[in-house]
Write the structure tokens for this entry.
Amino acid sequence: MEERNKGENRARSDDYYRQRAIRRKRERAIKKRRRKIVAVGLLVLVIIIALLVTMFSCIGSCIGSGDTTAASASAQLAETELTEPAADASESTEPANASATVDTSYFDDAVFVGDSVTMSFSMYVDSQRSQGIDCLGDAYILSAGSLSYSNSLLPVGDPNCVLPVYQGVQQPLEDSIAQIGAKKVYIMLGVNDIGGYDMDTVMENVDTVLNNILEKSPDAKIYIQSVTPRVKSTNDQFPDIDTIRAFNERMKAYAKENGHYYLDIYSAVADEEGFLKDEYCSDPDSMGIHFTMEADAKWEEYLLNHPEGE
């Protein structure tokens, strides 16, 4: 009995190894066929490439020795293009992101520069972020009450200097922006300029401030935000709506001439007459220019939908 079991086990073992040998032989045969197929495919590919090269060479020869009329026309076209004046740089196309919603991360490398109106916006942004809401990504806000293009040029230590503080240091705007490492500079200044200087002097100061920024941050882009309106009840104060509008038009033209972006925040918060909407004003009984949280939300909405202007 034991001998018979041993015989059966040996038979099963022999059968197992025989089947294993057959499978391996079959696998080797399959691999061999695959290698042959790959080799034939490569040969066919080489032949096709050779034929295409030959065909294009023939076409090139025919074209080179053939139609001289087409060559003459091409030469005339090239001559026309060389003699035509270049397009004016001021007639540039719309920016890629114009009038297109962007993710908040678009503002990760941005800094917002401004006066007390921007200070209000800063409080809104901080409030949103404290609630866990992603508000304008990692954008930094650099603002100070009464800041203007003109007084931002005053040296630190001057009694009228109101430059904002960055990391505990009061310093020129261009230095703070460079240290922040901003690649996008959104600036809203001017309401404190046009209240005390003539427009031409203000524009000279605008040019100086922005050039100073670009000198320290040559890779940065400038985004000029319009000065915002005031409520109708305070329009007897200076600057009035007409003066603000005139300044914004000057700034819009300046932005176009110098390759900067212009953002019309004014229209985003104005009523049908061009005044700041009453519900958007936090100080209707005094200056009439500062924002409520609702107005700041409209500002943020505009930025997300028109990050580079309209």
About this structure: The radius of gyration is 36 Å. Residues 65-99 have pLDDT under 50 and may be disordered. The first strand starts at residue 110 and ends at 114. The CA atoms of residues 10 and 150 lie 103 Å apart.
